[in-house]
Design a protein that fits this description.
globular; about 20% strand; alpha/beta; two-stranded antiparallel ribbon; 7 strands; single chain; 5-stranded mixed beta sheet
Length: about 200
């Protein structure tokens, strides 16, 4: 377990320098976990428990995923609860190339973020049943990023609960697997070693 995370700590930094063209962004939520912690900041839950509050709350980890149409992907654990514009500025803004078209759902945080930084933005109103729109830039949807969410959830399920403090490592691991960056243990080692040398 310790060796796994020593390597994954490096792999999580193997990110694309920039996302280009049409960039889909959306967040997903999973129950926060303090698995393995001796001190909890909440009452303990039974294994497989549920959040104490309905809807989006601080009992849920917020994972931001952004993906361009060439399948370059970034994923970040940005905090707990609803997505905030400041989190987009920290985790998404440095990864966006000039001239991108940001596509999201109707979450107001994306709209405020795009307006503040002069980023072209199109929103898809999923609650109203809107899935795809077309304009001069191409198909406007978040289906690619939502499909990524589904694959990520299915992959995480095999671990029967991941501690929130280790979640960024697993996000990096899955991103490398999903993008074909890792196809063997040897690939994992080479990526980890290259990132180690780059960060020196």
């Amino acid at each position: 377990f310790r060796w796994r995370h020593r390597f994954l700590e490096r792999v999580k930094h193997d990110l694309p320098p920039r996302l280009h063209g049409i960039v889909e962004a959306d967040e997903m939520f999973i129950l926060e976990s303090q698995k393995g912690s001796r001190k909890l900041d909440r009452a303990p839950r039974k294994r497989g428990g549920k959040a104490g509050k309905r809807g989006i709350s601080n009992a849920l980890d917020c994972i931001l995923v952004a993906r361009d149409r060439s399948r370059q992907t970034i994923g970040a654990l940005v905090g707990r609860g609803a997505l905030k514009m400041t989190q987009l500025e920290r985790h998404l803004l440095p990864r966006l190339d000039e001239g991108v078209l940001l596509v999201s759902d109707s979450n107001a945080a994306y709209r405020a973020f795009s307006r503040k930084h002069g980023i072209a933005h199109q929103a898809v109103n999923l609650r109203a049943g809107q899935r795809v729109r077309h304009n001069a830039a191409g198909a406007i949807h978040v289906q690619n990023v939502n499909a990524y969410h589904q694959r990520l959830r299915q992959w995480l399920a095999r671990f029967h609960g991941v501690a929130s403090r280790y979640l960024p490592n697993y996000l990096g691991w899955h991103r490398a697997l999903d993008g074909g960056r890792i196809t063997s243990v040897g690939h994992l080692l080479r990526i980890a070693i290259r990132v180690i040398h780059t960060k020196r």
